[in-house]
């Protein structure tokens, strides 16, 4: 990598020495050098964040996590204010008697296969390193809020695969996880089937990750058993939001 110009040692400037006849000038030069050194350090640090050079892997990871968290928190605040789906679910959680407190709606680091999670004890986790867009974060927020709503209203037993499957079907269907466009949804029946297939596939994957689930086969059976009734249960929405 090319070195920056500010990394020079100022060959034209007098060397600092106790014999220098111009202590004031010497001080000025020294301060100037310090300022330049500081600017260079800042410059190198900014470059390091882009390239990863100059930082230990741990430092680089910490910087990435800090940046991810900042973006996740910022988008969360924006979506709470502006997303109709997020606002609708926040209101309905409050109406159902389970208001979503800010400290139960957190950004954090997850393994790369996840984008969010709901825990009855800890609330909603948004995977700050798992979002590929703001829309993805919005869908994830709504998805997890539907799980929270189900837990609040329907008393879900999360170790019961059929209970879990029902909530996953509803969350995948209502959150926008399987959204195409409204036009396509209205105009082409085949795409309605695709929406259902997408909901089913995603619900199976989620149920499969339940520690109580012994196999993919068991997850498929649970989802198929509840699909019809849970896909059609759009509460608190009036219809599928696609
Ligand atoms: Zn889910």
Automatic annotation (TrEMBL):
The organism's place on the tree of life at top rank: Eukaryota
- InterPro entries xrefs: Peptidase_M76_ATP23
Enzyme Commission numbers on file: 3.4.24.-
The keyword Protease appears for this protein: yes
Q: What is its main location?
A: mitochondrion
| Signal peptide residues on this chain, from the entry's feature table | none
Q: Which GO terms describe its cellular component?
A: mitochondrial inner membrane
Q: Where are the transmembrane segments?
A: none
> Which GO terms fall under biological process for this protein?
mitochondrial protein processing; mitochondrial proton-transporting ATP synthase complex assembly
The UniProt entry lists membrane topology as: Peripheral membrane protein
* Polar residues biased stretches: 17-29
Q: Where in the cell is it found?
A: Mitochondrion inner membrane
Q: Which PANTHER family match?
A: MITOCHONDRIAL INNER MEMBRANE PROTEASE, MITOCHONDRIAL INNER MEMBRANE PROTEASE ATP23 HOMOLOG
Q: Which family does it belong to?
A: Belongs to the peptidase M76 family.
Question: What protein am I looking at?
Answer: Mitochondrial inner membrane protease ATP23
């Amino acid at each position: 990598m090319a070195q920056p110009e500010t990394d020079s040692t100022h060959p034209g400037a007098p060397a600092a020495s106790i014999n220098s006849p111009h202590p004031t000038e010497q001080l000025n030069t020294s301060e100037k050098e310090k300022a330049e050194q500081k600017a260079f350090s800042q410059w190198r640090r900014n470059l390091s964040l882009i390239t990863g050079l100059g930082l230990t892997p741990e430092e680089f990871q910490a910087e990435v996590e800090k940046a991810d968290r900042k973006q996740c928190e910022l988008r969360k605040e924006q979506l709470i204010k502006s997303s109709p789906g997020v606002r609708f679910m926040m209101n309905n959680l409050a109406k159902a008697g389970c208001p979503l407190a800010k400290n139960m709606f957190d950004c954090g680091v997850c393994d790369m296969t996840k984008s969010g999670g709901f825990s009855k004890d800890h609330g909603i986790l948004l995977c700050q390193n798992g979002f590929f867009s703001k829309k993805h974060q919005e869908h994830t927020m709504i998805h997890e809020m539907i799980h929270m709503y189900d837990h609040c209203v329907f008393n879900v037993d999360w170790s019961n695969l059929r209970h879990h499957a029902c909530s996953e079907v509803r969350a995948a269907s209502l959150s926008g996880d399987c959204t195409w466009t409204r036009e396509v949804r209205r105009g082409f029946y085949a795409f309605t089937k695709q929406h259902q297939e997408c909901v089913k596939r995603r619900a199976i994957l989620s149920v499969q990750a339940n520690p109580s689930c012994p196999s993919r086969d068991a997850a498929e059976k649970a989802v198929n058993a509840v699909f019809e009734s849970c896909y059609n249960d759009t509460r608190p929405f009036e219809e599928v939001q696609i």
